Amino acid sequence: AGLPRVFSGMQPTSDSLHLGNYLGALRQWVAVQEDHDAFYCVVDLHAITVEVAPDVLRQRTRRTAAQYLAAGVDPDRSTVFVQSHAPEHAQLAWVLGCITGFGEASRMTQFKDKSVRGGSDRSSVGLFTYPILQAADILLYGTHLVPVGEDQRQHLELTRDLAQRFNARFGETFVVPEPYILGSTAKIMDLQDPTAKMSKSAQSATGLVDLLDDPKVVAKRIRSAVTDTGREVRFDREEKPGVSNLLGILAALTGATPEAVAAGYEGKGYGDLKADVAEVVLAELAPFQQRFTELLADPAELDRVLAAGALRAREVASVTLARASDRVGF
Ligand code: ADP
Ligand code: NA
Questions:
Q1: What number does the ligand 1 atom closest to the CA of 151 have?
Q2: 61 with 22: CB under 8 angstroms?
Q3: Residue ranges for motif 'KMSKS' region (predicted)?
């Protein structure tokens, strides 16, 4: 109580999160929980905006939650829960959808990107209204701060607009959240195409470091990372995107600046850099994978954590929803 509230979530759209998710989000969540009242959600409602088999979704939801915990999110400190366990999300999303302009929703660029990629005729209305559900996720918890990457800025702006609009029309109800840009957040690029961000939806899996990959696979992917012409290890995202990405990963994991890391490679080559990156990444992943395995081996304990998280989430969400419903005239 009294601590600023934070909300964040990830979609359970793969069996393993990747190094970009870890360095750009998950590891930050662990740090943030120390001095914030954090709600970390597995957003499974969002995950059905694209077609997925029920068993696959169920498994990915559990695996995603287990990866939050394996990374160090502490369920005694933070509220860890699954979105569909709190029906308030879908209920508030309906209300917010009714104060969102059609044109306003149409301007969301991520929908445009994703629907074009999937073939626009096949994209669902759910994919279109996704940012409204995201607004509901955030507003239900009286969230002050939302850790966001650059790609999510526009959605948070919509959340703020909807909160302000609702408050103006129906009376003060929602906290208007602020973006929480974490200074040290690294943007991790694809190992094979270092001009694109590392992403689940990447063209080729060899550009990814999945957190749950076999150590041998991880080492091989890092060894095979695309580097740049020349031999000099230098931090320069424009001229040397591949080398700079590796330096960025090493910097993020060692707490140094990429420039300082680069300085240590005077007289050394790309091979030395890759060997060091592989070593540091594997050292970080070993305890993570160990904890993940333990968590999956005890399904009852994971269920208990998620049930407790849902209870706590609903305590907060139900109060906000009741207040909003009353304001609307329900
Ligand atoms: P993906 O693009 O792989 O589908 P998500 O969109 O589900 O990943 O992202 C989940 C979280 O991880 C978000 O907070 C996002 O900002 C962060 N994230 C995703 N990819 C990267 C990356 N390559 N570098 C840094 N952070 C990332
Ligand atoms: Na994304």
A1: 16
A2: no
A3: 197-201
Choice from 6, 11, 18, 21 to test ligand 1 binding pocket (greatest atom count within 8 A of CB):
21
Helices (H), the chain: 19-21, 27-32, 44-47, 54-71, 88-97, 102-106, 109-118, 125-139, 153-170, 215-223, 241-254, 258-263, 270-296, 299-328
pLDDT at site 122: 72
Q: Is 239 annotated as a binding residue?
A: no
pTM of the model: 0.94
Distance 42 CA to ligand 2 centre (A): 14
Phi, psi of 74 (to 5 degrees): -100, 110
pLDDT band, residue 237 (cuts 50/70/90)? very high
Give the three-state DSSP class for 13. coil
Residue nearest to atom 18 of ligand 1 (CA): 21
Q: What is the pLDDT of residues 19-71, one digit of tens each?
A: 999 998 999 999 999 999 999 999 999 999 989 999 999 999 999 999 999 99
Lookup result for tokens 């300085």: 263
Residue 216 assigned as binding residue: no
Q: Looking at the predicted structure, is the pLDDT value of residue 4 above 90?
A: yes
Q: How far is the CA of 264 from the centre of ligand 2 (A)?
A: 33
Residues forming the active site: 114, 197, 200
Contacts of 329 (CB under 8 A, 6+ apart): none
Calpha distance 62→82 (Å, rounded): 9
Asked whether this complex has an ipTM greater than 0.90, the answer is: yes
Query: Amino acid identity, residue 41?
Result: C
Q: Which 3-state string (H, E, C) describes 207-265? A: HCCECCCCHHHHHHHHHCCCCCCCCCCCCCCCCCHHHHHHHHHHHHHHCCCHHHHHHCC
Residue 152, annotated as binding a ligand = no
Ligand 1 centroid to Cα of residue 200, in Å, is 8
Best CA proximity match to 66, nearest among 301, 287, 302: 302
Ligand 1 pocket at CB < 6 A: 10-11, 20-21, 24-25, 149, 187-188, 197-201
